[in-house]
Design brief:
This protein has five helices and four strands; from the N terminus they run H-H-E-H-E-H-E-E-H. By secondary structure, the protein is mainly alpha-helical. It has a two-stranded antiparallel sheet with strand order 1-2. A two-stranded antiparallel ribbon has the order 3-4. A hairpin with a 6-residue loop joins strand 3 and strand 4. Helix 2 packs antiparallel against helix 5.
Length: 159
């Protein structure tokens, strides 16, 4: 699900004054802090079956579907289940969405059905309102920290 923020002109102007890489770094840090509660809630709703992380990495298949999320002025972070080594969890979608009745191809033996047990979508839906306020607050904090670092660096260079 994509989240587009409009009406943040003051934040946008402040970020435009920073170098592009600096602005992206500040925004990435703010987004990561904003999405951490969603990841924690999703991990709790999964009953401990999945570790949920905030990351910019996707599997090759997911990356093909998210090509529009990339660009010079775009920044994308994803909340999703990962394995212990940080790679995507290959069976989480079966847990989230469930399966229809399955049968073995050669023998016809019934393999079973798995009911949907959603954990990501409820976590996202429960946190949407809070995320917008948190993102705005965290972005301002990151901009202020970045400007303070630049002031300190300039003061050191001036001495």
């Amino acid at each position: 699900m994509k989240l587009k923020i409009e009406g943040g002109g003051d934040i946008e102007r402040a970020l435009a004054e920073l170098a592009r890489g600096t602005a992206k770094g500040a925004t990435r840090r703010a987004m990561k802090k904003t999405l951490q509660p969603v990841a924690a809630m999703a991990e709790g709703l999964s009953g401990g079956k999945f570790k949920v992380a905030v990351t910019s990495k996707l599997s090759k298949r997911q990356a093909r579907g998210a090509r529009g999320d990339r660009g010079r002025s775009k920044l994308a972070l994803y909340v999703g289940p990962v394995q212990e080594d940080g790679s995507p969890s290959p069976h989480a979608h079966l847990y989230e969405f469930g399966t229809a009745p399955r049968f073995h191809a050669k023998t016809g033996k019934a393999v079973g059905v798995m009911p949907a047990q959603p954990f990501l979508r409820p976590a996202w839906d429960a946190s949407t309102e809070l995320m917008l306020a948190t993102l705005r607050r965290e972005t301002w904090k990151e901009i202020e920290k970045t400007l303070e670092r630049a002031r300190r660096k300039a003061a050191r260079a001036g001495k």
